[in-house]
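Key result, reporting period 2: structure in, sequence out.
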């Protein structure tokens, strides 16, 4: 995949992140061994199942939610680095499968 193609794939994923779509549609943009790093929340997820869980939990917690791309650049070995501004309001708790509250809803906008 070319650098331009990789950048466009990431751009498409980011622009549809908050839009209604099936889990399969969302995951179709990623390799099965996708590695997702979110430095703002210190979250790392690897693989389709883990990334799908993160998407579901995040969208449940943050409503309304939208994304804006500040910059997006290709890096080495097919990696794409994106700086994204997220806007939303934390209205629902994020609860882990074991029932522990991972993120407490504050109602605050971000």
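The corresponding designed sequence is given below.
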């Amino acid at each position: 995949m070319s650098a331009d193609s990789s950048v466009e794939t990431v751009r498409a994923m980011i622009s549809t992140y908050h839009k209604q779509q099936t889990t399969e549609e969302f995951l179709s943009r990623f390799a099965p061994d996708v590695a997702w790093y979110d430095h703002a929340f210190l979250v790392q997820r690897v693989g389709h199942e883990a990334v799908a869980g993160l998407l579901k939990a995040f969208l449940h917690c943050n409503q309304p939610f939208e994304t804006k791309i500040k910059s997006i650049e290709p890096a080495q070995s097919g990696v794409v680095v994106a700086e994204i501004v997220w806007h939303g309001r934390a209205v629902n708790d994020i609860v882990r499968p074991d029932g522990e509250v991972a993120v407490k809803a504050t109602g605050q906008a971000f």
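The chain has one domain: 3-103. The first strand starts at residue 35 and ends at 38. This case is discussed further under Risks and Mitigation.
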